């Protein structure tokens, strides 16, 4: 197996284990604070703040810009150590400053994201935020260290370290349940010690996740030292490269603020911010695993062909990658749609709550296949060093997301608000994919759209009876009142059973009609499975 192949398998395996342990972390968190609760939504806002702020200050900068600069610096006489020391010192100082400012502005930040919270809920969320916002520094340090390791071809630690974070969080949240007899959903029930244990655990997991990377530092062959002589780092050049990506992230965060504020109006006894985050976690599970394990190697090949100016091969790469990703993503969409209630039961405290929150997941699923297409289309623009065009079609999507959230807030009842927000986001994403595909088609004078649309159509036709079979099995198992919604564990087992039925029928139908994409897709899937 090639070094790229080994890295892909290592990253893919790490992603799967990380996602599964992340699901367990969320299950324990739901047991601690409830799924539909004022305290749960207060914590969800506070704990999401570090991710949002870190995304604004770093997304695109590290992966798209810094790593190539580190690779380029490796050609220096010292192997790039001086450059990396300057970069690391600059990044650490910037992260400290951003974290300090965020801590000072904590009350304002919570107000910005949850303006419809009651005063006591705002106060609780702000208290959580003071404990959670230090994560900004450690998230940033983790990303900086991890990208340096990746640039030096030390791939494993960056992918596997989040598992340690999940283990720490599971232990801390479990201790909270034992000490305070969770779930504690009422805002008035929270004491300073409860806040410190729950939010402190969330931050401790990020700290440990970052420290883990330091144990692998010697393998990178670097000896870092503080270096405040930042001349020569190329800040102006980095800024130009990352500018459009930075603006794209800011636009996305602004749309997220609108969504969060609309959802804060449903907080309490209905699906709101925390329930929406959990539905998105389920939605992203097949997407992240499939794209990371299958899409990334395709992107590497596509980038090589784009760099060499072989547009014809790029067009073939686009069609091939969409067909391959589509085979798995269409099946995953059907399976997760059928298992929506049992899967949602994993993150809720009763069958009734699972039935109430499942529509949120179903509305998100409408854009799962389009987002897989977008992955290929957007990264093709990146392969041609074009970050400006993706900014424009993402800006359209962000505007539609914000407008859709406001429309959902006016048109839907509290109990349906989260599903309405998810629905409008899916519609916005579908529009984004259509625009992006048309623009790439014009740029490359065709991208084989007819061939991969036909393939997606075949997969969808096979998925419909497969989903019907899975739904029939769910009804035979008792539906909402059956064993699949009895607990989080039975929800997971039920989702696995239903998903297996859907996938078996799906593959059987495609095999019966001798679908050409079936054999290479199954071969690829077997390569990703453990050999022992």
Short description:
The chain is 79% helix and 0% strand. It is mostly helical and 532 residues long.
Specify the number of helices. 20
Helix content: over 70%
Q: What would you call the quaternary organization?
A: single chain
Largest sheet: none
Question: What is the residue-mean pLDDT, rounded to a whole number?
Answer: 85
Structural class by secondary-structure content: mainly alpha
The SSE order reads HHHHHHHHHHHHHHHHHHHH
Q: What is the number of beta strands?
A: 0
- Unreliable spans: 1-5
Tell me, briefly, the overall form.
globular
Rg, nearest Å: 23 Å
Could you tell me the strand content as a percent range? under 5%
Number of domains: 2
Distance between the termini: 15 Å
3D architecture notes:
With 532 residues, this protein is mainly α. 79% of the residues lie in helices and 0% in strands. Helix 11 packs antiparallel against helix 12. The radius of gyration is 23 Å and the shape is globular. The model is unreliable at 1-5 (pLDDT under 50).
């Amino acid at each position: 197996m090639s070094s790229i192949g080994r890295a892909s398998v290592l990253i893919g395996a790490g992603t799967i284990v990380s996602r599964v342990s992340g699901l367990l972390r969320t299950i324990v968190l739901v047991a601690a604070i409830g799924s539909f609760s004022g305290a749960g939504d207060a914590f969800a806002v506070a704990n999401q703040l570090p991710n949002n702020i870190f995304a604004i200050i770093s997304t695109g900068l590290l992966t798209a810009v810094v790593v190539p600069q580190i690779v380029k610096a490796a050609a220096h006489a010292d192997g790039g150590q001086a450059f990396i020391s300057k970069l690391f010192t600059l990044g650490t100082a910037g992260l400290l400053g951003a974290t300090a400012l965020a801590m000072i502005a904590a009350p304002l930040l919570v107000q910005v994201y949850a303006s419809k919270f009651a005063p006591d809920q705002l106060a609780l969320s702000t208290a959580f935020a003071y404990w959670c916002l230090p994560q900004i520094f450690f998230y940033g340090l983790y990303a900086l260290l991890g990208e340096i390791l990746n640039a030096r071809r030390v791939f494993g630690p960056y992918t596997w370290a989040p598992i340690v974070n999940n283990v720490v969080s599971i232990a801390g949240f479990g201790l909270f349940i034992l000490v305070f007899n969770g779930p504690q959903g009422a805002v008035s029930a929270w004491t300073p010690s409860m806040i410190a244990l729950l939010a402190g655990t969330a931050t401790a997991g990020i700290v440990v996740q970052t420290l883990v990377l330091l144990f692998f530092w010697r393998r990178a062959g670097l000896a870092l030292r503080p270096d405040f002589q930042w001349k020569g780092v190329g800040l102006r050049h980095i800024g130009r490269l990352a500018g459009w990506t930075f603006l794209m992230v800011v636009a996305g965060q602004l749309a997220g603020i609108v969504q969060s504020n609309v959802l804060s109006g449903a907080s309490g006894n209905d699906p709101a911010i925390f329930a929406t985050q959990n539905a998105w976690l389920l939605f992203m599970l097949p997407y992240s695993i499939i794209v990371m394990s299958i899409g990334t190697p395709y992107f590497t090949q596509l980038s090589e062909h784009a760099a060499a100016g072989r547009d014809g091969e790029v067009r073939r790469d686009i069609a091939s990658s969409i067909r391959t990703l589509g085979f798995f993503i269409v099946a995953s969409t059907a399976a997760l749609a059928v298992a929506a209630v049992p899967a949602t039961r994993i993150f809720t405290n009763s069958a009734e709550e699972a039935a109430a929150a499942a529509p949120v997941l179903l509305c998100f699923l409408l854009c799962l296949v389009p987002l897989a297409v977008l992955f290929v289309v957007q990264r093709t623009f990146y392969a041609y060093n074009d970050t400006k065009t993706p900014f424009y079609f993402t800006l359209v999507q962000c505007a539609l997301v914000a407008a859709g959230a406001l429309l959902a807030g006016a048109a839907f009842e509290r109990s349906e608000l989260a599903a309405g927000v998810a629905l409008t986001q899916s519609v916005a994403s579908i529009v984004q994919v259509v625009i992006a595909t048309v623009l790439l088609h014009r740029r490359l004078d065709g991208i084989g759209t007819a061939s991969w649309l036909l393939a997606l159509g075949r997969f969808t036709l096979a998925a419909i009876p497969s989903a019907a079979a899975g739904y029939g099995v769910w009804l035979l198992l008792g539906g909402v009142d059956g064993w699949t919604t009895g607990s989080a564990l039975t929800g997971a087992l039920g989702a696995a059973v239903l998903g297996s039925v859907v996938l078996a029928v799906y593959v059987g139908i495609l095999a019966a009609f001798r679908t050409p994409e079936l054999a290479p897709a199954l071969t690829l899937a077997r390569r990703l499975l453990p050999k022992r």
